Amino acid sequence: MILVQLNPQQVAVVTHPYEQSLLVVAGAGSGKTTVLAHRTIAIANALPSHQSVQMLTFSNKAAKEMMLRIKRIGTTALDRILCDTYHSWGIKQLKADPEGFGLSEGFTLLSDSDTKRSIRALAKSHGLPKEIPQEDRRRLNPKAWLSTWSLARQAGFDVNNLDNYQSLTDRLAKSHNLQGDEIELAWQTLRGYEIEKQKANSVDFDDLIYLPLLRLAKDINFAPSINCSIGHVVIDEVQDTNRIQYEVVRRWVNGYCPVTAVGDDDQSIYGWRGAEISNLRRFKSHFSASELRLEQNYRSTQSIVNCATSLIRVNVDRLEKTPFSTADVGSDLTMRLFDTSRDMSEDLCDLIAQKIETGVPPKEIAVLYRTNRMAMLIEQSLGRRGIPFHVVGGMSLFDRAEIVAITSAIRLSFNPRDVYALKNLTPYIDGIGPGSGYVVQEWLESDDSFSLSNLPDEIPGLSKARRDALDIFFNDLVMEIGTSSSAEQFIQWSIDGPMQLLVREKDDQMREKRAVFLSALAVDLTLESAERFASDGRSRWQDVLLDAALRDARQSESEGGQITLSTVHRAKGLEWDYVFIPGFSEGLMPLANRSELDDDEAGFSHTEEERRLAFVGVTRARLGLVAMHADEYFFPGSKDEQTFTPSRFAEELGLFLNDFRNKPSVDVDNINFEIGRGSFASELSRLITPRSM
Question: What is the C-alpha to C-alpha distance for residues 376 and 345, in angstroms, rounded to an integer?
């Protein structure tokens, strides 16, 4: 194997004795994947022909990328390198011997939707009220109970052991502020779920790791039966393992074969879903592992590496390391301060447009944020500038069903032959189903002169009642768009009028989300209308909405060359030349504590994990990073602006501050600009409450 392109630390990792367990502490941008691929190949080449290397990682994407890297390097032992996620490894064990896990042949793996449907039905059967007050919906949410149940299983609780009743109900009560009969309701629901799975010969995703661990703990013959062909185990991102993932490996191979574990405690950002950063130290102790480090950062400038190191060293319980970069010093990292989130998002788009104009490819620019609601403050500004973007692991505002319905309505009113808009609106037209919609679409396409604005008395294949229902809906739509004085008023009509955008949604939580997204659209359209009116005094809200719909269609058709919008969590493992982090504010990053649990009970320090998350965001940048703060944010669904102070992380990073506050903004005093503060937002609670059709 050729190792000349590796640095001394990397060579030491690759060549460390293969019969010994090894902990590799790999800093950001240190070439971890390449080093891990080289070591895996070297181990596979050294093992006897009847043994393999078993690699474990967290996602199918990561497993595929690792195997592609191994193939590019090249090895004759490729068939003896196994690469699985923990879940795919688990399902292989269950399929190989279902009876050994209390299952029968042909067992079923439940999907997320199966699980949610089951848990909701069980809760109702055990007495969950059909109508729950708005203030209690988060507490009395069966899906949230299941998340707590899942975290308990990941922490090693045997949920089928009734001796754990008190511990589990205490967790449920504290996590969801349950009292009295509510605690028993949650317990009966979740125990019923476990019993229902057993009766149905089904497992969920947690079971894929949980059941092998139980068997490893109880059946002394199980581990020898599955490890006889394994000569070495390689674990990627060990800092993100939860307790049962770690215990599976320990009980499976400890004392049988060596393990190489690679991770970085400074990049542990999944404590909220059960990951235990302490597993790095546990591993070193349990496996008597040596420790080596990868500290040279090949990704980022010296300025970025130095600032990130300054930030993360504030955390007290971490493995000390000395990251360094031999790249250029680079430009200073800055923090830009604004009065409002609107000012912040406009400035962000200005900076991105300037980068693109100077030749930076859009694909080399990312906007990272702590939570998805920040994206809603940014998307429309990007759209107005014609800056192409895609949302990683999420959905653009204009891709959501309720927003598609609004934009399709404006499109259809301006173009009565738009069959695509009609198809999108069909679910919101009483009396017109998919079949009737298809008939109308065929009729429209059969003759260029046919139009919804002039329906004949008869349409072949369509009953008179359905024809009349369509005619009434279209005329009402055109009338409303023509007479509504604002986008807010039209969106209100889409909710209260014949479309009934919210009432048709039966799921309480989804209805609430739809209301928030409609609020986001109304706020943005009102702001853009105000800007255009201030500019030329002539723009109508209808033109603004139609332009938004058309530019979003162009956006969705764009291929490549897009900037990236992503939460920091989803950006882990990725990198860009330039990174922008809006919402760098106390309460947003770091996020206000998500739980009533204190740090000891949660198993991790919330503030330290938030600092690690900021560290991950900063180290995604190769050449430049800009953080941004606004004193006031208006998030869709909120009745008022929320006030924040700059994040403590700005000082810890040593960012240079650029203060743009107290600057004049667009004068909209004479524009109806009460959306979000007045009528629309104040009625959200009514809008998300189901009414009779």
Answer: 10
